[in-house]
Design a protein that fits this description.
This protein is of the alpha+beta class and 199 residues long. It has helices at residues 25-29, 64-75, 120-123, 126-140, 154-164, 174-186, and strands at 3-8, 14-19, 48-52, 57-61, 79-84, 88-93, 96-100, 104-108, 113-117, 145-149. The strands form three sheets. It has a four-stranded antiparallel β-sheet, covered by helices on one side. It has a four-stranded mixed β-sheet with strand order 5-8-9-10, with helices on both faces. It has a two-stranded antiparallel sheet with strand order 3-4. The longest helix is centred in the C-terminal third of the chain and has 15 residues, at 126-140. The radius of gyration is 20 Å and the shape is globular.
Length: 199
């Protein structure tokens, strides 16, 4: 698939028509949010910005589900950077020029991850499934990972949301944190009991 990407750089400058297969990853990581972020009376989705401890900055979201994905990304120690609406991807698919702006680009310890967030019932609709399919093909052609993320289990999300309140560097003494981390790494893992409490 021949695809190209458009990136918005600092101060509103845009680079358009860049070859997808060769655009530098560093450029994508440095990109500004592609779409204009706005609020208006009566809008149907819930927008806002989330203070990410991973970014040490605000990251935007356009729905409560996108906010949930940000919470999970911030909780994941393998995620080292989070960018919202990082670029516009264009490709000719079935003779028609298609366009798509992924919700997030994440830098991780195992390589880039491109994320689209969509409620499960909407992700299954043919028009969305089609967009996600050609986006996945383009992303994976670079050896990157791609995911369509939908609703997590309620209890799990509640726990992640609760713990998010404690991801604040100033709450913890760095020397003490490092000492505890070293002790935890040095301990042997408990035996696996397959649901039976070890005694």
């Amino acid at each position: 698939m021949d695809a190209e990407v458009c990136v918005r750089l600092a101060e509103g400058e845009a680079s358009e028509g860049l070859a997808w297969e060769s655009v530098p990853l560093e450029m994508l990581y440095a990109a500004e949010t592609w779409r204009t972020f706005r609020w208006y009376m009566g809008q149907k989705h819930y927008s806002g910005s989330y203070w990410s401890s991973t970014q040490s900055d605000h990251v935007i979201y356009e729905s409560r589900l996108e906010l949930a994905r940000l919470l999970y990304a911030d909780f994941d120690r393998d995620v080292t950077a989070i960018l919202a609406q990082p670029f516009l991807l264009r490709a000719e698919v079935d003779g028609v020029l298609r366009r798509h702006i992924p919700d997030y680009l994440m830098a991780t310890t195992v390589g880039p991850l491109v994320v689209d967030v969509k409620p499960r019932h909407r992700a299954a609709k043919p028009e969305h499934a089609f967009t996600f399919a050609w986006t996945r093909e383009a992303v994976e052609s670079r050896g990157w990972r791609y995911e369509v993320w939908s609703e997590p289990p309620d209890a799990e999300l509640a726990n992640v949301r609760f713990l998010a309140g404690y991801r604040r560097d100033w709450l913890f003494e760095p020397d003490l944190t490092e000492e505890i981390s070293d002790l935890a790494v040095g301990e042997e893992s408990p035996p696996k009991t397959h649901g039976v409490i070890a005694r």
